Amino acid sequence: xxxxxxxxxxxxxxxxxxxxxxxxxxxxxxxxxxxxxxxxxxxxxxxxxxxxxxxxxxxxxxxxxxxxxxxxxxxxxxxxxxxxxxxxxxxxxxxxxxxxxxxxxxxxxxxxxxxxxxxxxxxxxxxxxxxxxxxxxxxxxxxxxxxxxxxxxxxxxxxxxxxxxxxxxxxxxxxxxxxxxxxxxxxxxxxxxxxxxxxxxxxxxxxxxxxxx
Length: 213
Hints:
Elements: E1 2-5, E2 11-15, E3 18-22, H1 31-37, E4 40-42, H2 53-62, E5 68-71, H3 72-75, E6 85-88, E7 93-96, E8 99-107, E9 119-125, E10 129-131, E11 145-149, H4 157-167, E12 171-175, H5 182-192, E13 202-203, E14 210-212
Parallel strand pairs: 3-4, 4-5, 5-6, 10-11, 11-12, 12-13
Antiparallel strand pairs: 1-2, 1-14, 2-3, 7-8, 8-9, 9-10
Helix pairs in contact: 1-2
Protein backbone atom coordinates (compact mmCIF):
# COMPACT_ATOMS: atom_id res chain seq x y z
CA UNK A 1 0.00 0.00 0.00
CA UNK A 2 1.20 3.48 -0.87
CA UNK A 3 0.67 6.45 1.45
CA UNK A 4 0.85 10.02 0.15
CA UNK A 5 1.03 12.90 2.62
CA UNK A 6 -1.07 15.95 1.84
CA UNK A 7 -1.50 19.19 3.78
CA UNK A 8 -2.03 18.87 7.54
CA UNK A 9 -3.98 15.72 8.49
CA UNK A 10 -4.91 14.55 4.99
CA UNK A 11 -3.39 11.39 3.55
CA UNK A 12 -4.26 9.23 0.55
CA UNK A 13 -3.78 5.47 0.55
CA UNK A 14 -3.45 3.61 -2.75
CA UNK A 15 -3.50 -0.14 -3.32
CA UNK A 16 -4.26 -2.13 -6.44
CA UNK A 17 -5.45 0.93 -8.32
CA UNK A 18 -7.86 1.90 -5.52
CA UNK A 19 -7.56 5.17 -3.58
CA UNK A 20 -8.78 6.01 -0.08
CA UNK A 21 -8.67 9.64 1.10
CA UNK A 22 -8.64 10.41 4.83
CA UNK A 23 -9.54 13.77 6.37
CA UNK A 24 -9.41 16.16 3.38
CA UNK A 25 -9.64 19.53 5.09
CA UNK A 26 -10.09 23.17 4.18
CA UNK A 27 -6.40 24.02 4.63
CA UNK A 28 -5.55 22.40 1.29
CA UNK A 29 -6.57 24.23 -1.90
CA UNK A 30 -6.21 20.92 -3.72
CA UNK A 31 -8.95 19.21 -1.70
CA UNK A 32 -11.49 19.31 -4.57
CA UNK A 33 -8.89 17.68 -6.83
CA UNK A 34 -8.06 15.05 -4.23
CA UNK A 35 -11.73 14.25 -3.72
CA UNK A 36 -12.19 13.86 -7.47
CA UNK A 37 -9.37 11.28 -7.53
CA UNK A 38 -10.64 9.27 -4.54
CA UNK A 39 -12.56 6.01 -4.67
CA UNK A 40 -13.69 6.52 -1.07
CA UNK A 41 -13.34 9.07 1.74
CA UNK A 42 -13.01 8.74 5.53
CA UNK A 43 -13.80 11.69 7.83
CA UNK A 44 -12.69 11.47 11.47
CA UNK A 45 -14.55 14.49 12.87
CA UNK A 46 -16.20 17.79 12.06
CA UNK A 47 -13.37 20.33 12.44
CA UNK A 48 -12.73 22.16 9.18
CA UNK A 49 -9.04 21.25 9.06
CA UNK A 50 -10.19 17.63 8.59
CA UNK A 51 -13.56 18.08 6.89
CA UNK A 52 -14.04 20.50 4.00
CA UNK A 53 -17.81 20.21 3.90
CA UNK A 54 -18.45 22.48 0.89
CA UNK A 55 -15.85 20.63 -1.21
CA UNK A 56 -17.24 17.24 -0.21
CA UNK A 57 -20.82 18.28 -0.91
CA UNK A 58 -19.76 19.53 -4.34
CA UNK A 59 -18.07 16.21 -5.11
CA UNK A 60 -21.13 14.27 -3.91
CA UNK A 61 -23.31 16.40 -6.18
CA UNK A 62 -21.04 15.30 -9.03
CA UNK A 63 -20.65 11.68 -7.86
CA UNK A 64 -23.53 10.79 -5.53
CA UNK A 65 -22.35 7.19 -5.15
CA UNK A 66 -18.92 8.14 -3.77
CA UNK A 67 -18.44 6.15 -0.53
CA UNK A 68 -17.95 8.56 2.39
CA UNK A 69 -17.57 7.12 5.89
CA UNK A 70 -17.85 8.92 9.22
CA UNK A 71 -19.84 9.55 12.36
CA UNK A 72 -23.54 10.41 12.23
CA UNK A 73 -22.75 13.60 14.15
CA UNK A 74 -20.48 14.64 11.28
CA UNK A 75 -21.98 13.24 8.09
CA UNK A 76 -25.64 13.02 9.08
CA UNK A 77 -26.44 16.49 7.69
CA UNK A 78 -25.09 15.54 4.25
CA UNK A 79 -26.24 11.91 4.14
CA UNK A 80 -29.03 12.81 1.72
CA UNK A 81 -26.61 14.48 -0.70
CA UNK A 82 -24.92 11.19 -1.60
CA UNK A 83 -26.12 7.62 -1.79
CA UNK A 84 -22.70 6.32 -0.67
CA UNK A 85 -22.56 8.05 2.74
CA UNK A 86 -22.10 5.44 5.49
CA UNK A 87 -22.54 6.38 9.14
CA UNK A 88 -20.41 4.42 11.59
CA UNK A 89 -19.61 4.25 15.30
CA UNK A 90 -16.51 3.19 17.23
CA UNK A 91 -16.10 -0.58 17.01
CA UNK A 92 -17.40 -0.82 13.44
CA UNK A 93 -15.57 -2.94 10.87
CA UNK A 94 -16.45 -2.26 7.26
CA UNK A 95 -15.13 -2.66 3.74
CA UNK A 96 -14.95 0.45 1.61
CA UNK A 97 -13.56 0.54 -1.95
CA UNK A 98 -11.80 -2.75 -1.24
CA UNK A 99 -10.09 -1.50 1.95
CA UNK A 100 -10.81 -3.04 5.34
CA UNK A 101 -11.51 -0.25 7.83
CA UNK A 102 -11.84 -0.51 11.62
CA UNK A 103 -13.24 2.43 13.58
CA UNK A 104 -11.61 3.25 16.93
CA UNK A 105 -11.65 6.03 19.52
CA UNK A 106 -14.72 8.12 20.09
CA UNK A 107 -13.79 11.56 21.43
CA UNK A 108 -11.59 14.46 20.35
CA UNK A 109 -8.66 15.17 22.65
CA UNK A 110 -9.28 17.78 25.33
CA UNK A 111 -8.58 21.33 24.20
CA UNK A 112 -9.75 23.26 27.28
CA UNK A 113 -10.86 21.54 30.49
CA UNK A 114 -14.21 23.34 30.56
CA UNK A 115 -15.07 22.67 26.90
CA UNK A 116 -17.08 19.58 25.94
CA UNK A 117 -15.16 17.05 23.85
CA UNK A 118 -16.65 16.51 20.42
CA UNK A 119 -16.94 13.09 18.72
CA UNK A 120 -13.83 12.02 16.80
CA UNK A 121 -12.72 8.59 15.63
CA UNK A 122 -9.59 6.94 14.33
CA UNK A 123 -9.38 4.63 11.34
CA UNK A 124 -7.26 1.49 10.99
CA UNK A 125 -6.89 0.61 7.31
CA UNK A 126 -6.13 -2.97 6.23
CA UNK A 127 -4.81 -3.67 9.72
CA UNK A 128 -1.69 -1.66 8.94
CA UNK A 129 -2.11 2.13 8.93
CA UNK A 130 -3.79 4.01 11.78
CA UNK A 131 -5.05 7.58 11.41
CA UNK A 132 -6.15 8.74 14.88
CA UNK A 133 -8.08 11.86 13.91
CA UNK A 134 -7.63 14.42 16.68
CA UNK A 135 -7.00 12.05 19.54
CA UNK A 136 -4.25 10.20 21.36
CA UNK A 137 -6.63 7.40 22.42
CA UNK A 138 -4.69 4.16 22.09
CA UNK A 139 -6.33 1.46 19.93
CA UNK A 140 -6.18 -2.00 21.46
CA UNK A 141 -4.74 -3.58 18.32
CA UNK A 142 -1.27 -3.93 16.83
CA UNK A 143 -0.35 -1.03 14.54
CA UNK A 144 2.34 -1.21 11.87
CA UNK A 145 2.30 2.44 10.76
CA UNK A 146 1.00 5.13 13.11
CA UNK A 147 0.14 8.64 11.95
CA UNK A 148 0.94 11.04 14.78
CA UNK A 149 -0.63 14.51 15.22
CA UNK A 150 2.12 16.93 16.27
CA UNK A 151 0.66 20.46 16.38
CA UNK A 152 -2.52 22.26 17.31
CA UNK A 153 -4.21 23.68 20.40
CA UNK A 154 -4.58 20.24 21.99
CA UNK A 155 -1.09 18.84 21.37
CA UNK A 156 2.41 18.98 22.79
CA UNK A 157 5.50 17.03 21.82
CA UNK A 158 5.60 15.09 25.12
CA UNK A 159 2.06 13.79 24.55
CA UNK A 160 2.90 12.79 20.99
CA UNK A 161 5.92 10.83 22.25
CA UNK A 162 3.80 9.15 24.92
CA UNK A 163 1.22 8.21 22.27
CA UNK A 164 3.91 6.57 20.15
CA UNK A 165 5.23 4.71 23.19
CA UNK A 166 1.77 3.43 24.11
CA UNK A 167 0.93 2.25 20.59
CA UNK A 168 4.43 0.86 19.89
CA UNK A 169 4.18 0.87 16.08
CA UNK A 170 6.91 -0.22 13.69
CA UNK A 171 6.79 3.20 12.00
CA UNK A 172 5.53 6.62 13.07
CA UNK A 173 4.77 9.39 10.56
CA UNK A 174 3.99 12.98 11.56
CA UNK A 175 0.71 14.59 10.53
CA UNK A 176 -1.33 17.62 11.69
CA UNK A 177 1.71 19.92 11.40
CA UNK A 178 0.31 22.87 9.41
CA UNK A 179 0.48 25.21 12.41
CA UNK A 180 4.25 24.78 12.73
CA UNK A 181 6.66 27.28 11.19
CA UNK A 182 9.96 26.17 9.67
CA UNK A 183 11.51 26.74 13.09
CA UNK A 184 8.78 24.64 14.68
CA UNK A 185 9.36 21.82 12.20
CA UNK A 186 13.06 21.82 13.04
CA UNK A 187 12.14 21.67 16.72
CA UNK A 188 9.84 18.75 15.95
CA UNK A 189 12.65 16.89 14.21
CA UNK A 190 14.95 17.52 17.17
CA UNK A 191 12.44 16.45 19.81
CA UNK A 192 10.77 13.51 18.10
CA UNK A 193 12.99 12.56 15.16
CA UNK A 194 16.07 10.35 15.11
CA UNK A 195 17.86 10.65 18.45
CA UNK A 196 14.92 12.44 20.07
CA UNK A 197 12.41 11.49 22.75
CA UNK A 198 10.01 9.42 20.66
CA UNK A 199 10.66 5.68 21.14
CA UNK A 200 10.00 5.22 17.42
CA UNK A 201 11.51 8.24 15.62
CA UNK A 202 8.91 10.28 13.78
CA UNK A 203 9.32 10.41 10.04
CA UNK A 204 8.27 13.69 8.45
CA UNK A 205 7.07 13.54 4.84
CA UNK A 206 6.92 16.66 2.73
CA UNK A 207 3.54 17.52 1.26
CA UNK A 208 3.03 15.38 -1.83
CA UNK A 209 5.66 12.80 -0.82
CA UNK A 210 4.81 9.11 -0.77
CA UNK A 211 6.04 6.00 1.02
CA UNK A 212 5.14 2.31 1.00
CA UNK A 213 3.43 1.19 4.20
